[in-house]
Amino acid sequence: MLQAVPVADPAAEVTDWWRVVERCMPSHETCGALTFTPAGVETFDADWEGWLTSTFLPVLHPGLQALQMAVAAQDLEALAREDTTLGAGLPAAAAERSLTAGRHLLLSFAPPQSVRLLDRLRAMAEEQTTFGQLAAVFAVRGQIFHLPSVQVTGAFLLAECVLGADAAGLTLPAGRTVALLQGALEGLAREPVPRLLAV
What is the residue extent of each domain of the chain? Predict the structure, then answer.
């Protein structure tokens, strides 16, 4: 999916990447569509392209990168600032869905043992109802599992795509999913992107 060469087994590739989604977002089965909400099956591809242009590239991608840098530095204040900036940059309805999904993930799922940053984020979310955009929690959980930035970004895109399609009543075949995500990441990749290593 994130390779410059054709994928020999799209189903295996999507399965490998979905494992990353499950690590970063174990709440995926209960959250529904995130910030990508296609109008329907017939307009799915156009809606995906529109979301990439209007939401992912200008808001979510730079926000996710900034969040990952804050997480890598274990900088709670920077993480909180980036969370607020991301929420303000999203369209209101998308920001609300992202906040709901992020807070559910943060408050309803026990963090791995001795992950202080996640414990501190949970405490912050309990005190501040406006804190906890999904991308922030996703970035933190990706860091917990020592996932490279490209894997976190790819898994985030995969979750947006699959959950948006599901909400529209569309089950994407693996080959189509791979093609959609490759297209989305072509503009982001400056050098060949590695295949996912075993997680």
Answer: 10-28+36-186
Note the pTM of the prediction, 2 decimals: 0.86
DSSP per residue, 102-147: HHHHHHHSPPPTT-HHHHHHHHHHHH-TT---HHHHHHHHHHHTT-
Q: CA-to-CA distance for 31 and 146, rounded, in angstroms?
A: 24
Degrees to nearest 5, angle at CA 2 with 134 and 98: 10
Decide: 59 and 185 in contact? Cβ < 8 Å. no
User: What CATH number was assigned to the domain covering residues 10-28+36-186?
Assistant: 1.10.4190
Q: Closest Cα partner for 64 from 115, 127, 140?
A: 140
List pLDDT tens digits, range 99-148: 999 999 888 877 666 678 888 888 888 888 889 999 999 999 898 888 99
φ/ψ region of 146 (left if φ > 0, alpha if ψ in -120 to 50, else beta) reads left
C-alpha distances in angstroms, 90 versus 63, 153, 170? 10, 17, 24
In the numeric block, which tokens belong to residue 178? 């791979």
